[in-house]
Design a protein that fits this description.
Radius of gyration: 25 Å
Strand order of the largest sheet: 2-1-3-4-5-6-7
Structural class: alpha/beta
Helix content: 40-55%
Bound molecules: cobalamin
Shape: globular
Strand content: 5-15%
Number of strands: 19
Distance between the termini: 61 Å
């Protein structure tokens, strides 16, 4: 293939997120262009949703439903059919509103007579009605939040439509993940192969048509399909299938976070019916090698971190060459993505979830990898954690300036594993020096070095929110998981952020090895106190899962657990089941912890004994009532 003929198209498959593009194609496209390679990108996740949820898309859905036997029509489907005319009339204005193109529609939406209301609107009834007007959303949005209120109602309306699509066409469809179970920790390719061999439904057909349109627009010779999460894998294969059916000579490559995590032991030849190559870890170096290979300038033996199929068998080729330094990867570009068409959804009435689903964020990385890389629940052995590499602050700020020119937008989400405090300090100083007015947020570790002074500096430079792991709030377990923080330290650090006006979201965990019921009750008590003391404003409880690449998965004996025997995976491998000698049924705590947290986030129930959230009898907490208050007092007296 001659140099001039090489045209690369990078694709984000459904689903990732709808408010802003997932950044991998932007990174790869920016890098390839910086090396003089003709590269373009497409977000087929957004395109799929905009096509399905359009007047023509709803008519197609209506036609599908007409062919369904009456017995197969769920309540959601019947409700949609009964009000189809209203749905068909409102879908385009609602999408325009969610895209920020028609703000005045908020008034009609808020009147509650404009949109047809399906089952999703029942969630509004759980909120306490306002005493005067009986407005169930008044507590959340107040008198001034007309736009947000309308955005929330419009999101419920879209969720209703997604339910109809799910019930009538494809049970696997969701807005942020699609057919996730076909890929996540799936030891064999069989379920995915069966799904790919099944006749195409409306979603598949729409996606195939969009794929062909993208091929027509860009005429690529090489297509890169990026799968960050298990919930984007099925669609990635459908896209590759459509490409190969159209023109088998187009080279297809699979890469991304899911591959880097779950396909490291790939041995399934059928994957290569759809993809010519599968690459691991940071894509820049493997891609340069692959492009040289496709241009006839490099043999197969010298591919980098690339799986190929040879004589019907999967072979992993890794000619060792250094990765491209973080300072040299170039600036991501959003060029070619329809930035004005993303949807600002308002799903959860929680300030942090809002940052994830609402608004267009430029995404950048302060540093590649994690500077701590010790946490025993984390995939610390994988390149995206273990290879720590940092660019000087000036390079980062240059990239930010380039992105503002590129997108016209000044909000940044740093997608780091954990942005290092020193680098953030230098970034903040640099932003202030250059008088660059931006907003930014990202994930950090609750390090001691985030004191009041540094937090204020970060806030002055535009930091609006941080997320960080408190995991199981228990000093014993934090030590066992090598988190490197204590509850007391987290209290002080989060308070310093909050005092500076920065929103704090805590990642919380339950079900870690050796965790007892008492530990869980105590953890919730710490969390209660942190909310009550204004240290954190948001949080989420994740159930601990043991992965094959984590220290717990590698040395289970050190954590008192026994792993189930390995599954002999030929396809995906990640989560492993285990037994914990404590025998605690952590599943029983999922709902109580979620309920408690949901209420705390809204300032409700903070004065209650934490035992009240649990259905079963649990022991009284051992945590002193004023633990957090005392930690904060000692700190204001003595400094951190
Ligand atoms: C920030 C982040 C988030 C954020 C923001 C996500 C977003 N949409 O922007 C939030 C908190 C919302 C999030 C949520 C989730 N996340 Co997350 N997230 C990350 C994190 C830390 C960085 C992602 C990122 O933007 N990286 C920067 C981009 C440029 O990197 P990249 O996509 O990996 O691309 C590079 C390479 O992979 C490669 N590449 C990518 N595509 C391709 C394609 C080809 C052809 C080639 C050759 C190369 C290539 O080149 C790129 C440049 O080097 C990663 C871990 C990590 N460090 O990567 C986890 C990670 C991607 N998340 C993960 C998961 C599981 C999730 C959730 C499903 C968690 C959950 N249970 O809810 C959700 C899914 C949410 C959704 N549907 O959008 C896993 C996925 C692993 C897996 N099992 O598949 C990861 C890897 C972390 C982990 N080990 O747990 N996440």
């Amino acid at each position: 293939m001659a140099d001039s003929a090489m045209r690369v198209l990078s694709i984000i498959p459904p689903m990732t997120q709808l408010n802003t593009p997932y950044p991998s194609t932007a990174y790869l496209t920016g890098f390839l262009r910086s090396r003089g390679i003709d590269a373009a990108q497409e977000d087929l996740a957004l395109a799929l949703v905009l096509t399905l949820f359009s007047p023509a898309g709803l008519r197609a859905l209506h036609d599908e439903i007409a062919a369904l036997p009456a017995a197969k029509r769920s309540a959601n489907v019947s409700a949609f059919e009964a009000r189809f005319d209203r749905y068909a009339a409102t879908i385009a204005p609602v999408i325009a509103f969610l895209q920020g193109r028609d703000a005045t529609l908020a008034h009609r939406i808020n009147g509650r007579a404009f949109l047809p209301e399906g089952a999703r609107f029942e969630s509004l009834d759980v909120y306490v009605a306002d005493q005067d007007g009986g407005d169930p959303l008044a507590w959340a949005f107040g008198a001034l939040g007309a736009q947000d209120r309308a955005r929330h109602l419009a999101t419920l309306y879209l969720n209703d439509l997604a339910d109809v699509l799910r019930d009538a066409v494809d049970p696997r469809f969701e807005f942020v993940r699609y057919a996730e179970s076909l890929a996540q920790s799936q030891p064999t390719f069989d379920p995915l192969a069966d799904a790919l061999a099944a006749p195409q439904n409306l979603v598949d057909r729409t996606l195939a048509a969009l794929t062909l349109q993208a091929l027509q627009r860009h005429a690529p010779t090489l297509v890169l399909i990026s799968v960050p999460f298990p919930g984007s894998v099925y669609a990635a294969f459908r896209i590759a299938q459509a490409i190969k059916a159209h023109d088998p000579a187009i080279v297809t490559v699979l890469g991304g976070g899911f591959v880097n995590t779950e396909l490291r032991e790939l041995a399934e030849p059928r994957v290569f019916d759809h993809f010519d190559h599968v690459t691991l870890d940071a894509g820049e170096r493997p891609l340069l090698a692959l492009i040289e290979h496709l241009q006839g300038r490099r043999s197969t033996q010298r591919l980098v971190r690339t799986f190929v199929r040879e004589a019907g068998k999967v072979r992993y080729v890794n000619w060792v060459e250094p990765d491209i330094a973080f300072a040299e990867v170039g600036t991501p570009t959003w060029d070619g993505l329809p930035l004005a068409s993303y949807l600002s959804l308002l799903d959860m009435l929680n300030p942090m979830h809002r940052l994830w689903s609402d608004g267009r964020w430029n995404k950048l990385t302060v540093a590649h990898g994690c500077y701590w890389k010790k946490c025993s629940f984390c995939d610390v052995n994988l390149d995206y954690i273990s290879r720590y590499d940092l660019a000087i602050p000036d390079v980062l700020i240059d990239r930010m300036e380039a992105l503002i020119r590129d997108t016209g937008q000044t909000g940044f989400h740093f997608v780091d594993e954990a942005a290092p405090p020193k680098a953030l300090k230098a970034l903040a100083q640099g932003l202030l020096q250059r008088k660059l007015e931006v907003s930014w947020w990202g994930n950090i570790r609750f390090e001691k070095s985030f004191n009041a002074e540094l937090c204020q500096l970060l806030a002055d430079s535009g930091c609006i929110a941080v997320t960080g792991g408190l995991e199981v709030a228990s000093d014993r377990l934090l030590k066992l998981m090598k988190k490197g923080v204590s509850v007391e330290q987290v209290a002080r650090v989060t308070r310093a952020f909050s005092d500076a006006g920065i929103l704090v979201h805590a990642y919380l965990m339950y079900g870690f090895p050796t965790q007892t019921v008492q530990d869980t009750v105590d953890a919730l008590e710490y969390v209660r106190q942190l909310f009550a003391a204004g240290c954190i404003q948001s949080g989420f409880f994740h159930r601990f899962t043991c992965t094959v690449h984590s220290p717990v998965g590698k040395h289970p004996e050190a954590y008192g657990v026994t792993l189930q025997p390995p599954l002999n995976a030929t396809f995906a491998s990640n989560d492993i089941n285990f037994t914990d000698a404590t025998g605690v049924d952590h599943d029983a705590f999922a709902a109580p912890l979620k309920k408690a947290l949901y209420n705390y986030m809204h300032g409700i129930g903070l004065e209650h004994d934490v035992r009240e959230w649990f259905d079963a009898d649990v022991p009284r907490t051992r945590v002193p009532k004023s633990f957090v208050a005392r930690a904060l007092k000692a700190w204001t007296r003595g400094g951190p």
